[in-house]
Design goal:
It is a multi-pass membrane protein. With 134 residues, the protein is an all-alpha fold. It is built from six helices and no strands. It has one domain. The longest helix is centred in the N-terminal third of the chain and has 31 residues.
């Protein structure tokens, strides 16, 4: 395998991972705050509630990640947010160490992808990278 070729694409693929992750994460927030896509359990959501705050973090943090602005600190906050979400909403349903059984797989995956962004940064196609080049 030609690792030089893979290494030359590493920063761009990191950016793609960040963009796709942010887009998917934002969809959770837009469903909560704006009803798009519509998820019935979020009908009548109060903005000043834990779920409302989650929606704000998902939309705001997701938007910053999408453009790659302040990626490391935003990813740090979102990593912690997803860890708290896992333990508040999933681990207390029993089987705390088995996210597949308590419905927490997505929370755990987001948590660790965000943790990766804390250490890896935003990648090539980001506002952070553009600011570094100046």
């Amino acid at each position: 395998m030609n690792t030089a070729f893979l290494n030359s694409w590493q920063s761009r693929v990191l950016a793609v991972l960040r963009i796709v992750t942010a887009y998917l994460f934002m969809a959770h927030g837009t469903a909560k705050l704006f009803g798009m896509p519509h998820v019935a359990m979020f009908d009548g959501l109060q903005l000043m509630s834990l779920v409302g705050l989650a929606g704000v973090l998902e939309v705001g943090g997701g938007a910053l990640l999408l453009i790659g602005l302040f990626t490391r600190p935003v990813a740090f906050v979102l990593c912690g947010f997803m860890a708290v979400a896992y333990f508040m909403a999933h681990a207390n349903q029993g089987n705390a160490l088995l996210p597949m059984l308590n419905g927490g797989e997505l929370a755990v995956l987001y948590c660790f992808v965000f943790l990766y962004f804390v250490f890896a940064g935003a990648g090539a196609w980001s506002v952070d990278a553009a600011r570094r080049r100046r």
